[in-house]
Every structure is written in structure tokens, then in C-alpha cells.
Amino acid sequence: MASSAGYNKMFPVSWTELHRDARALAWRLADLGPFKGLVAITRGGLVPAAIIARELNLRLIDTVCCSTYDRMERGAKVELLKGTSAENDKGEGWLIVDDLVDTGVTARAVRALLPKAHFATVYAKPAGRPTVDSYITEVSQDTWILFPWDQEAVMAKTIIELKGSQQ
Ligand SMILES: O=P(O)(O)OC[C@H]1O[C@H](OP(=O)(O)OP(=O)(O)O)[C@H](O)[C@@H]1O
Ligand code: HPA
Ligand SMILES: [Mg+2]
């Protein structure tokens, strides 16, 4: 059964902010390498991975393909759709990149495949924080991080309309 984690705040992230935060993560990772290559966790890890690979001059990029959430609903388990050749050496010397860690279930599943890799996310929530090695920005557990690829421009409600809908 799917479970909803009770998100009641939105933290919208723009393309510019995501680029800045991914570059800040790359600065931190630059002192921890060199890495053999980078494993991006699809799909959310793909954009930060491209930015970080550029900054660290990594050309060897692989993916672990998995699916945990359907929109804002968490599924019963992490579905692993594709692994990586980095598993041959348990991920030693590899960098894993994802957009965020929330509950940590995705990170734990990928760590089981690549226990020796360095796991980095741009954003982290408290429950998942212990499962990653590096991150840049922490947000509270009841916050949904709204990535730029999940946003569209719409006409905002006025304050009077918003107040009216609360009455
Ligand atoms: O810490 P967790 O509770 O496991 O949540 C974090 C994971 O959930 C999201 O992926 P999602 O399954 O939504 O797929 P997507 O990357 O394709 O959007 C996000 O990109 C992380 O990979
Ligand atoms: O806060 C989030 N934002 C986007 N995707 C997610 N997947 C788990 N938590 C989140
Ligand atoms: Mg993901």
C-alpha cells in the first residue's frame, strides 16, 4: 500500500538555486575525490549529476534506475529497475548522486548495492540524513521539496482569495 508522509510545507527550488546548490556540493566533494566515476540515481539525481560531473571533470557516468514515489505518495518498496557495473567492486571509489534523501529508503537500497561508494545528495531531511555521506541543504521532514522540473507557471491567488478559502 502507498503511504503519504504528511507534507504540509512546500520548498520551491528554482533552476538557479538548484545549480548553485549542486555546485556548492561539488566544491565539498572536490576535496574527497578523486572518484573513478559517478552513479546517478534516476530520475531526480540526473540533473545534479550532470552539474557535479562537469565541476569534477568526471566523464564516466552510470545510473541506478529506481522508483520509490508516485508524485507525493511513497510506494511500499523501492523498485530497482537497473543496477550498475560499479557493483563489481562494491562501488569503491565511485560517487553516488541523488537530488535528495527523505526517509532514506532509496539511499539504503542503493547503498546495499554499492556499500563502498560515497553517497551525496543536494538536499536532506532529518530521517534520511544518516544514510548519506555529504549534502548541502537540510529541510524539515514535513516539507516537500518542489524541484524546477515539477513546476509550471500559473496565476497566483490573491491574499484575499487565499484568506477566503480558509473561512
Ligand atoms: O529518501 P526517500 O524517502 O527514499 O526519497 C528520496 C527519493 O525519492 C525521490 O525519487 P522518486 O522515487 O520520486 O523517483 P524520481 O527520482 O524518478 O522522481 C528522490 O529523487 C529520491 O531518489
Ligand atoms: O520532498 C520531496 N520532493 C521531491 N521528491 C521527493 N521524493 C521524496 N521526497 C521528495
Ligand atoms: Mg529519485
Provide a descriptive summary of the structure in words.
The chain has one domain (9-166): Rossmann fold (3-Layer(aba) Sandwich), CATH 3.40.50.2020. 26% of the residues lie in helices and 31% in strands. The protein is built from four helices and eight strands, in the order E-H-E-H-E-E-E-H-E-E-E-H. Strands 4-3-2-5-6-7 form a six-stranded mixed beta sheet, with helices on both faces. Strands 1-8 form a two-stranded parallel sheet. Helix 1 (15-30) crosses helix 2. The mean pLDDT is 93. It catalyses: XMP + diphosphate = xanthine + 5-phospho-alpha-D-ribose 1-diphosphate; IMP + diphosphate = hypoxanthine + 5-phospho-alpha-D-ribose 1-diphosphate; GMP + diphosphate = guanine + 5-phospho-alpha-D-ribose 1-diphosphate. Homotetramer. It is found in: Cell membrane.
